[in-house]
Amino acid sequence: MCFFFSFLPATFWFVIGYFVLFASTKAEGGLQKFGRILAIWIFIIASFFPMMGLYITVSDLCPIEELMGAVTK
Description:
Elements: H1 2-5, H2 7-26, H3 30-58, H4 63-72
């Protein structure tokens, strides 16, 4: 369950990354290089959210399942 919820922040960060990448194509010189490097770092950060969500789900540490179980009982 945590794996699926981790797609929400990952999507947010990927959209920001694409915006920074698009904005860097309109810039010139050093600002363009900085924008591309920043976009790469944002994509790396965004990829960590699903990886950590998968780890938490597989290791059975997801608190969302306990909260959902408490609501239905």
